[in-house]
Amino acid sequence: MIKLGEFNTLEILRSTSVGVFLGDDEGNDILLPNKYVPEVFEIGDNLNLFCYLDHEERPVATNIEPDVIVNEFQLLQVVEVNGFGAFLDWGLEKHLLVPFREQRNKMQEGQWYVIYCYLDEKSNRLVASNKIDRFLDNDELTVRVREEVELIVTRQTDLGWEVIINHKHKGLVYFNEIFKKVAVGDIVTGCIKTIRGDNKIDVSLQPLGEKVLEPAANKIYKTLEAHGGFLPLNDKSDPEEIKEKFQMSKKTFKKGIGTLYKSRKIAIKDDGIHII
To answer: Which homologous superfamily is 72-133 in?
Structure first.
């Protein structure tokens, strides 16, 4: 079966004036238009191609890699809004449609949105939705506390930033635990901090427990080296100064300089920290 919205490994069956036709092992075939056909090929070669519907709603293949595939989330830009909905640039000639019913708020041309790409069963077309919560499931979790995960930042709330966890679950990073700039669409690594009784997930952008010590210590030491071996910061410094300089909490900073002090790499004095 040739799957739309995905990459398919297909065999070249025949060459025509409009392109080559490729097929799967179930007897289905699809056109690869001339502009995407390799300069050198032989009948029987296998190609890994993305398949979707073209402007005339015909199944076609392409060797261009789109910015998103089916059943994935991605940050994309609206390039047109008309009577059918909003159209997104996803790297292919035919833009990706977000119907009005799938827009959380009316989308604006030129703006960027996190969307979910899916195959509409009624029309057999690839479409996108900005109502991403309905594609996330926290009923059956596939993550555990302290696990390292991939995050997509989706939107800001009163408490912090909502994130998509491993393209499956919804989580939250609290404002007071963010020590670097965050924006919608950022793809970052994080750790599962807490899973509450209602399966709501709290996420940290920093390593947890013992894992945080070595990276923090290394970052502090490298920053010291870059500043001639001295920084006017110590365990009594203002948390905001520490956050601005190191993008970490004061608690993490104190653990980091503690590690360096015990290793006899730095001296902690009233005026700041010094490389020994």
So the answer is: Nucleic acid-binding proteins (2.40.50.140)
